[in-house]
Amino acid sequence: MVEIKVGLLGLGTVGSGVVKIIASHQDRLAHQIGCPVKVTKVLVQNPEKERDVAISPTLLTTDADEVINNEEIDVVIEVMGGVEQARQYILQALRNSKHVVTANKDLMALYGTELLAIAKEHQCDLFYEASVAGGIPILRSIVDGFSSDRITKMMGIVNGTTNFILTKMSNEGKAYEDVLKEAQDLGFAEADPSSDVEGLDAARKMTILATLGFSTNVELTDVKVKGITSITEEDLSYSRDLGYTMKLIGLAKRDGNKLEVSVEPTLLPNKHPLASVQNEFNAVYVYGEAVGETMFYGPGAGSLPTATAVVSDLVAVMKNMRLGVTGNSAVSPQYEKVLKEDNEVFAKYFLRLHVKDEVGVFAKITSLFSSYDASFEKIIQMPLEEKGTAEIVIVTHRATLENYQTLLHKLEELDAVKCVKASYRIEGESK
Amino acid sequence: MVEIKVGLLGLGTVGSGVVKIIASHQDRLAHQIGCPVKVTKVLVQNPEKERDVAISPTLLTTDADEVINNEEIDVVIEVMGGVEQARQYILQALRNSKHVVTANKDLMALYGTELLAIAKEHQCDLFYEASVAGGIPILRSIVDGFSSDRITKMMGIVNGTTNFILTKMSNEGKAYEDVLKEAQDLGFAEADPSSDVEGLDAARKMTILATLGFSTNVELTDVKVKGITSITEEDLSYSRDLGYTMKLIGLAKRDGNKLEVSVEPTLLPNKHPLASVQNEFNAVYVYGEAVGETMFYGPGAGSLPTATAVVSDLVAVMKNMRLGVTGNSAVSPQYEKVLKEDNEVFAKYFLRLHVKDEVGVFAKITSLFSSYDASFEKIIQMPLEEKGTAEIVIVTHRATLENYQTLLHKLEELDAVKCVKASYRIEGESK
Questions:
Q1: Domain A138-298 CATH superfamily
Q2: pLDDT of residue B350
Q3: Which residues lie across from B99 on neighbouring strands?
Q4: If both were cysteines, with which of A264, A305, B286, B308 could A135 make a disulfide (CB 3.0 to 4.6 Å apart)?
Q5: How confident is the model at residue A185 (pLDDT cuts 50, 70, 90)?
């Protein structure tokens, strides 16, 4: 093998980073692999477009066949994004016995199991470290680093846009809309931010993490998702007063053989390792039965950080090629998936209510709580400007989701309660 | 291959953890490896000793030959500690073509290069993830996760004992001696704590990290070491006032092709990811040219966390055995080691002086600073109870170590300066 030939699908932010790293780290890569690596063909939409990466125009093509059906190419790197087209290209590349590295979380969350099975069938490697938490080597830490342990909980700040927004809102007391605008101006949020702010992007990553961490087939539709669009300055201010930090947390939890996976705005104690993860940074907290608490922190996006993950995967593929052991990395899931019912999901909650400021209100709320097996850990009551109205903020003890949801519903119905303004899960106080 | 047979050298804290994890995670291990794994022989000093792990007495032996020269055994796990004896056993095991997993930082810091070469020669794997930062999969993150990047800086809180002591001193305003006593009572510090508190333990781990991260042969004697024994409550209090957190930081830094490796009490800005690492937890901050800032956090010691790392290494060995590709993991260092001279080491410093409280003192200090290319970023002056004496705390701008050391010396000689009470490096404000 004189050199290893790589084809790229896409030359956007991540693709340019991949080309740059392969070019500038050539001696380091060759030292590890034992032979040079060369980018041979790159699929682009518009070869004329100006790019901030030096690449010979002869390498560019608008014909995917020149990559995926090119006999010369050993490894295909998919960094074009999107789902269906990327899936077809990857399937074709695998059928042609090409190894594949992808950064595509949408694709892996939806079709990961299928693609890994096809890869195995054709004795190909399919790696996707960059699909979760950009530059953080979290997938290989879960698969290799904790191969001897039983992971019972993962909590991820896996979306940089929403973490940037929540950090700014918390630190500067600004409103959601203003910070979103700022994030868009800085390039941290898309013009259409919905997949980020509504939690879908995080849900895709949690699907991938939960599937690997729990060795089972978690699907995107298994993830309960709630975004950050309705978080107010009041919620953040009360959270702070109570010693909590608000984060959009992807939670994947296992009790016995039963799972829950969710993405929702969550309050963490200020001392929790995830609470100090600021701005656009990502972090994944992993709890293993034997190892206990660990956390992996780093950039969740960006051209070079994400490209690092892609090229590190490429190195892994190339080492396997040199050793003749490709196609052995994917371990099929060990366990059948069993999702928890709502009466098996336990959590503490933060609850903010507007109530009538009159005698007996507290007693009514208290009695409602006890009839649903829920109780208070902390309460703040404050008068509001609106006459005859008070604001009550409650931190509950642990309750089942089923009871808590019924309780919320009954509170809304209570004559003394004007409305439930906000409700957030609290995590990270105990395992 | 019906099953993989493992021999243990040592059955102390970590060894017991290894036996427990192999016993309790049998199905998970077998699923990944494709065959069962069995502990076959365990070298102990005293077979009669009561242990908190269930193990058949017939497996115990006081004769090392029954492990290292036992033809049945495929993999030897060394968790006995110490240097010379462990080294001889491991060498013999490797010569017998047995793969080795070790948790021994002292040994790997001193003889890692030799042992890895012998392992390669005999086509054996030699893994040592547990030797640095216990349960944190930091070595494989550096080797595999950042294989495509160029690491330029690593900062580690890699000694749990000293981090526990500094956390307590900072949070509770207690003196070093009192907290040390407390740590000893809780089992976080040894009866003879010198290897921890004088920074030697951290230096061993930084030797291993720097060797891997910079792909060169860093030796223990290359590490400049300073411990925590002379840190006072005053130092911590001023640090806090200035927005810094004191940590014992192992620093490995590369500028161009020149390296520096040190372990010393260091001030970090409170916002730095390492600043919030509390108590006995460890963390390693890694800066890569492409990936930027990352951090790996978790338990640095303890029976089960450390055993997780050992058994995850064992899984890696066993996967390689099944694939027939053992002995390929060790990549020989790529670069020749060049250490920085003192005039190439740049840093900011925190400096606390007692001076005569009289006219002109400030001018003399200022003029001394400028003659050594050093300048102030922040100054605090406070009168002291002792008549005619003032305390000055200075945060310098960046200066070379050479200039700074001469400056310290000249300050001591200055008539107006009664004494230099403390001096600490500041890191983490820029790359």
A1: Dihydrodipicolinate Reductase; domain 2 (3.30.360.10)
A2: 97
A3: B75
A4: A305
A5: very high
